[in-house]
Design goal:
Layout: H1 2-28, H2 35-40, H3 46-55, H4 62-75, H5 89-124, H6 129-143, H7 146-160, H8 182-215, H9 219-226, H10 231-262, H11 264-269, H12 275-285, H13 288-316, H14 318-323
Length: 324
Amino acid sequence: MVSMIVRRLAQMAFVMFGISVVVFLIFFATPGADPASRIAGRNASPETLEAVRRDFGLDRPVPVQYVIMMKRLFITQDLTSFVNRGQKVVPSVMGAVPVTLSLVIGAAVLWVIGGIVVGVLAAAWRGSVLDRGLMIVGLIGVSMPVFWLGEMMNLVSQSRFHDSFLFSWVPGLGYTPLTQNPFGWFKALVIPWMTLSVLYIGLYGRVLRASLIEASQEDYIRTARSKGLSETQLLLRHALRTSLITFVTLFGLDFGALVGGGALLTEVVFGLQGVGKLTYDALQNLDLPMIMATVIYASFFVVTANFLVDLLYAFLDPRVRQDA
């Protein structure tokens, strides 16, 4: 188990290094692209371009440029935006991280609980009216775009029925820090949580149902059934544990992607200045250092999520520990 963890950590470090090199080459060493002209602005004189290249180290060999950029990004953390002069990249990203983490973690709790409940109930009553009803509701949830659902939630809670007793507690769009006002933080995020989780509840519920039905046909389930275990025990103690492997795989990928900026549409609809919104603004302005920082940040969370998924594999399936 320890050797597996060490091996996975080494793989993580290697992958992150490779990603940082690729991202740097795309943004700063692509043939025909001149970051200095972007920094200096339009109609800059050759003297100004040369001064910019010298100040930012863009006149050095590409490997040296990479080392300088990574040093300013991770060690000195004084890399500044090319568009908003004086705005440091790392503090900007770190300031957006709590917003995105708050949004995604809260939504993840809802969709994990909801997905397990929907999947287990649908599998337990397979072929019944309840099963069909849950699958139809799940399909509707998967089919609704998050930006449309978010706008409908805002229309109901912020506009049409905001003065009613149901939604009078809903604050205006935006984010309230947890450390500043925990209850205000909860009120500001509860509707974004529900909006973001609807899609995943339907998806995870359908996937878990299929996995449970497949697991119920396995030999070890038949053996346990022949020993007199009830269907509830078979479902919850045996089939569910092995079926959660697929569930965990999906969760790791989706959680990492959302924390890395995949929750952009939800952040925009609800006025949350998270990592996704920061990346979107940087892309609009072609702010290369900010884009590079957010892409590397996103890749870190995706790689970390995959590492945690591997650890959960080992917990859920003893065969993984034996192979390790």
